[in-house]
Write a structure and sequence with these properties.
- The protein has helices at about 5-10, 20-25, 45-55, 75-90, 100-110, 130-140, 155-165, 165-175, 190-200, 215-225, 245-250, 260-275, 280-300, 320-325; strands at about 15-20, 30-35, 70, 90-95, 115-120, 145-150, 180-185, 205-210, 255-260, 305.
- It is built from 14 helices and 10 strands.
- With about 325 residues, the protein is α/β, with parallel strands linked by helices.
- Strands 1-2-10-7-8-9 form a 6-stranded mixed sheet, sandwiched between helices.
- It is globular.
- The structure holds 4'-deoxy-4'-aminopyridoxal-5'-phosphate.
- 4'-deoxy-4'-aminopyridoxal-5'-phosphate binds near residues 186 and 310.
- GO terms for molecular function: transferase activity, transferring alkyl or aryl (other than methyl) groups.
Length: about 325
Amino acid sequence: MQVVDGFAGAVGNTPLIRLKRASAATGCEILGKAEFMQPGGSVKDRAALGIIEDAERRGQLTPGEPGIVVEGTAGNTGIGLTLVANARGYQSIIVVPHTQSREKLDFLRMIGADLRLVDPKPLRDPGHYVNTSRRIAEQLAAEGKRVIWANQFGNLANAAAHEATTGPEIWAQTGGRVDAFTCSCGTGGTLTGVARALKARNPKLRIVLADPMGSGMYSWIKTGEVKAEGNSITEGIGQASAVPGNLEHGRAFIDDAVQIDDPTALEQVFDLQLHEGISIGGSAGINVAAAIAVARQMGPGHTIVTVLCDGGARYQSKLFNPAFLRERGLPVPPWLA
Ligand code: PMP
């Protein structure tokens, strides 16, 4: 029998897909970790499970007993946390900026999250979704409830989940024949966890941060200073003003950074869907474009791995909506134009 137990058992062990056109264009092997195939639909299922299991190990939550998971998120972490919570008998309170895709918000409502929408605010503002979620968790704790604030940005159980699963899976799937890994960061959990796991096995392996416009993490890696310019329609990645704890935790393992604009990322999103049957979201588009940039820097014959964070269906109303794209002067997929 090859059976797993529930949502938790289904997390991880995603395929590593050879991206044909990116590989042919660069003479490298460009491989994408298919996180859009996770049970909750994104790479964040791993972090969500890791954070809740860590809280259970610490005795903060007990499966089957009342408990509340509170988090501020661009959506995907909230989806993962809510699904894990449902499977364990907890409630979830999920704080999201209303600017995130309608599909993610609808999905959160559909799966029973107590969804709290907030206005987008700078991180220093008390109304920022992260600060709001922390306040809600503190208030519930003060009322004597059993509650955790998942705190995906600062909670190192996030990166640890990737260090224990994503990184070792990539190493095993490539048989150790991997020269570089690149991916964008929201919390930095994926990048740091994978970097720590791969560098422990091969210190010469190159780790490159992929950053969207409007994020200051590219300049932080390049110069040590956080400076952000421009903007991006991608969701869940990029930090304008502060370095998340989970990214800081991987800094010593990050060799370089590349910056990718939206048109370059969208070209990958549209091409992969139309020509290879792989439907991805915007952050995955940034990652694939970054893998191509890294391949060009390194030259032919290298193997570069990246992450396909989530699927295109999560962004139908944005990345695949001609009116949304035209308004922003972005390319429209020819078959939808
Ligand atoms: N892509 C998407 C679509 C996401 O939702 C996230 C998480 N916010 C990321 C990438 C970044 O992952 P991480 O938090 O591990 O840096």
